[in-house]
Design brief:
This protein has eleven helices and 17 strands. It is of the alpha+beta class. It folds into two domains: 195 residues, no CATH class; 163 residues, Alpha-Beta Complex (DNA primase, PRIM domain). Helix 8 links the parallel strand 14 and strand 15.
Length: 380
């Protein structure tokens, strides 16, 4: 397995890096690969960015249909086609970020498990990163998704959900000279750029039940809950607007929303978590009947849980444009704030997101250019 004594990206080949500004363009999908995929029967070998990738069992059903709910099914071929079209928009948001992957090798109706590492031999195009584990007292190899071939390979092995860290290994463009020693010790990891996130994160999770959930289950999606989550998101935006901080919003593709504040990488995770907690507590004082930060499920039932505790190095959010392992294949969709007003999360599924981004582009295309100084916003 690849390693690097300084903990930098362990490239198995020279990686083709696209800068953030390149990501703003409307990338064209690989039409030859799409044509080969559509013409294939059960197996196909695609030429992707100079790499050869064999995909098998293309008509394997990964998302079964739900006729009662009016939800269509999707095969591995459908998923690969989606990634070929949307992947160029998705990759800038996942590049150089350690992954947490949810694997469903038999599809969403089968067993699923979370993994960070891959014990078998990796393809040559897959990049990895050695990161010190305080829990296990050793450096461990994390997967990265830095190119289209890796994205399609992950799909082929059944990683149907991609979740990413809020920090990334690259020091460009705003942290040149920062430490990239991620593996020597816990202290070296804390000093490294991986301990300095690109965003402050707020995870809005409505604990408003539909009434159809089994006893002890999490709230199911329902329109009232989602609308109340949207109302809290707009209140959060208004507060951050008053501090001159630009915010970005996306659906979680489950019941909630994710609100991100892109920041210059001057504050570590402890610093931004403290900032997020201050914001969350202020909103709870303003709207105690609507918002909760309480970890006790009973005490937050009927309210929107505003989770600021996601601002921790090892915690992740679903990647922008990641499909979720749920019926109907909903997508964690970046939005504009105006688009959120009329949004229902099932507006964005594997069936229609590719056409939307082909028409509108990436609504988060400038997020890494929109860096803001939280210390200045606080008047520090």
């Amino acid at each position: 397995m690849a390693s690097n004594k300084k903990g930098r990206v362990a490239n198995r080949r020279p990686a083709k890096r696209a800068g953030v500004r390149q990501a703003k363009a409307r990338p064209s999908p690989d039409r030859e690969a799409l044509a080969a995929l559509d013409a294939a029967r059960e197996d196909v070998t695609l030429e992707i960015e100079g790499e050869r990738l064999k995909l098998t069992h293309l008509d394997k059903l990964l998302w079964p249909p739900d006729e009662r709910a009016g939800l269509q099914g999707y095969t591995r071929r459908d998923y690969v086609r989606y990634l070929l079209r949307v992947g160029p928009y998705m990759l800038p948001h996942v590049r150089d970020r350690p992954l947490t992957l949810i694997r469903m090798p038999e599809g969403i109706a089968g067993r699923r498990f979370v993994h960070f590492h891959y014990e078998q031999r990796l393809p040559s195009f897959v990049d990895t990163l050695m990161i010190y584990s305080e829990k296990n007292d050793r450096a461990e190899e994390f997967l990265l998704c830095n190119n289209m071939a890796t994205l399609l390979w992950l799909a082929h092995i059944g990683d149907l959900e991609l979740h990413v860290w809020h920090s990334r290994a690259s020091t460009a463009p705003d942290a040149k000279g920062a430490s990239t020693d991620f593996l020597t010790s816990a202290e070296s990891l804390r000093r490294s750029i991986l301990n300095y996130p690109d965003y402050v994160v707020f995870d809005l999770d409505p604990y408003i039940y539909s009434g159809k959930e089994p006893a002890g289950a999490q709230p199911e999606f329902n329109v009232e809950a989602f609308e109340r989550g949207k109302a809290v998101a707009y209140r959060l935006k208004a507060l951050l607007d008053s501090m001159k901080l630009k915010t970005y919003v996306k659906t979680s593709a489950k019941t909630g929303l994710h609100v991100l504040v892109p920041i210059v990488r001057k504050l570590d995770y402890d610093g931004i978590r403290a900032f997020a907690e201050t914001i969350a507590r202020h909103l709870v004082r303003q709207y105690p009947d609507d918002i909760s930060i309480d970890w006790n499920v009973t005490r937050r039932t009927g309210k929107v849980f505003l989770d600021y505790n996601m601002n921790v190095r090892v915690k992740t959010l679903s990647a922008p444009y990641s499909v979720r392992g749920l019926p109907g294949a909903p997508v964690s969709m970046p939005l504009t704030w105006s688009a959120l007003e009329t949004t229902h999360p099932l507006d964005y599924t594997m069936a229609d997101v590719a056409d939307i981004v082909a028409k509108r582009g990436d609504m988060w295309g400038d997020i890494l250019d929109a860096k803001q100084d939280v210390a200045k916003a606080l008047g520090a």
